[in-house]
Specification:
Length: about 550
Amino acid sequence: MPLDFALSAMAKRSDRCPARWRRPFDRWLEGVEAGWSIALLLACFVGIWMVYLVLAYHGAGLHPDVLETWTYGRHFAWGYPKHPPLMGWMTGAWTSVFPLTDWSLQLMAMTNAALALWFVDLIARRFTSGHKRLIVLLLLMLTPAYQFHAQRFNANAVLLAVWPLATYCFLRAFETRTPLWAVAAGLTASLAMLGKYYSIFLVASFALSAMIHPARRAYFSSASPWISAAVGLLALFPHLHWLVTTGAEPIRYAATHVRADLFASLRDAANFLLGLAAAVSVSAATWVLIAGYRIRRFSRDYSASDPNLKLLCHIAIGTTVLPVITSIFLRTDLPSLWALQGLFLLAVPVVCSTRYRIERFYAVNATLLVAGIAIVAAVIAAPVHALYRNSHGYEEGRSFYHQAADQLTRLWHEQMGVPLSIVGGNDSLGLAVAFYSSDHPHYGDPFAHEYSLALPREVRPERGWAALCFDDQDDCLEWTEQMAAQAGSYLKRELSVQSSLFGIPGVKRNIVVFLVAPLREPDSAASSLAIMQGGTRMRVSAGRFTAAR
């Protein structure tokens, strides 16, 4: 306790007479209400973590989850096989403007994280002002949600921005009960559901929290909740219709997480809570240092806080407890990363309920901590990570994505003389070839080993196709060779690939590729195509791919 008082005294002295090096930070803190400080913080956040991503994954491809979202987004649909469509829509919109490069999709991921923090600030500014708003964002930046979790843009990461936006609109609809905000609440809630069905816990928490709020009678007797519900259902109708008419594949995929082992579900529920505790541990320790001895006032301050701030806390409880209850009841697995997008629901009430002044000293120190971690990550951790992965590789083979795409495309052009339109085989390799090949072939069913996304109607197997598997993936090799044999004769080659980082040779791996030539019309002048493979002459003739000596 004496240490707490000593820190408090130091903080007050620093605020009265700040050191020279602190004065630029103090001017930055003064710009919060002027509107530029938050924007500058988020721009720096995106910039430094972009440096980290570029260095840490130099020489490697994007994560398969990110490549999957791009594959979804190539064609607009009201739903996709594994997940609702929002992540595909966002990636499709982004790549219609930005190039198909690693840095482009990395920038998309970090922009999504910055938007998430911006929406959190929209909520925080309703309950506090000045540098307390910054402290909320800084505490969230000390969690792994907005950089490490965000960089893998998938159905989980897309919720980082959608959940605070939906929460903000619900909060405004609850406060004002006007039709405009009610419509916005319904639309953003449906948007969250289109991101991932896990968002049902957020929507349910909205309803339950409103039911125990002191102003519940005024809210539920108004048109606001019913407008929100009607608009949300109307916005979801195209996706619901798609589910009914296509066999509800995302529901079946979600059902794969269900298992019969109650003990395993209880263990996962406990790990879920422990994982969330670990995710906020650094932020919690930082907040304890900021609050000091004043943390004893939390219960009193919280009791006297704005009822709508308590509403957020109740939503936080709902989005934590409801998944646990559901997981145990249905006996499903429950990774804690599914809930990282809701951490802001804890940070906002904890900071904004304080009724005492927080010295600038602490805000500056928290800023330095966040900046220091980011700089160390970008300057030290990122190169170390890149060197380690260059020599040890990734389980999914990301180190070889560029080489696999280049070599397969070159081989296809040499043998077939036409652009490659379909690629199959191993999921991660197939998604990578679709993205990194200059032909950008389509990857999907029925040529994908495990992937269930159907090929576009205009992409026909008659155009020929290629498939590839790592040489140690026996199931993939057997399945792909059977597919190729059913198509007729085929060309099979083995490619050797090796990762490299700034000229430093890394891990090696072999990839087996299969080429099935395009079918030709029998009366076409180009009805035959000769392919040489070790003395065997392959010929496409009269619509068949045959072998001749």
